[in-house]
Amino acid sequence: MKITPFLFENDKLIRTIDRNGGPWFIAKDVCEALGLANSRDAIEKLDADEKGVASTDTLGGRQEMQIISESGLYALALRCRDAMTPGTVPHGFRKWVTADVLPSIRKTGGYSGGAEFDEAKFARIAAESARAVVEALLPGMIDGILAARGGCFKPSRQTWLPEHSPQGCG
Known about the structure:
Elements: E1 3-8, E2 12-19, E3 22-26, H1 27-34, H2 39-44, E4 51-58, E5 61-69, H3 70-79, H4 89-108, H5 119-148
Antiparallel strand pairs: 1-2, 2-3, 3-5, 4-5
């Protein structure tokens, strides 16, 4: 499955996939862009034909992601409580959908993400996201490795640095 990313407000990543010739949006991305704290509740309220699940390969293996159709995207954007409050993320998202996305689809038959899409910025955002995941998981992974090794780490000849001491390792 091909995932096509684009940016909303130049810093919010929203990924789409093609399903049966139409765009479907990764629900988590849309809910984060809208600032919806309870994304599960928001998605549950969508009609059955506006939500679904897609499987994709990731570095961690095959994963399922909740997806929403165009109709589901518009439903979330337009019914969000803050969608009519200027200056809020949901308001900006609603304006983006109604002023950019819908007119583009009507005029050209699709939405390409506009001229604002910047691959370098996308790569930076993706790298920051990956770094945050690693930083969140790394301490637990190190603790798990040390626990499995009895709290001791023995460096190999290849990884030994003179300033480290193996004191306490048997």
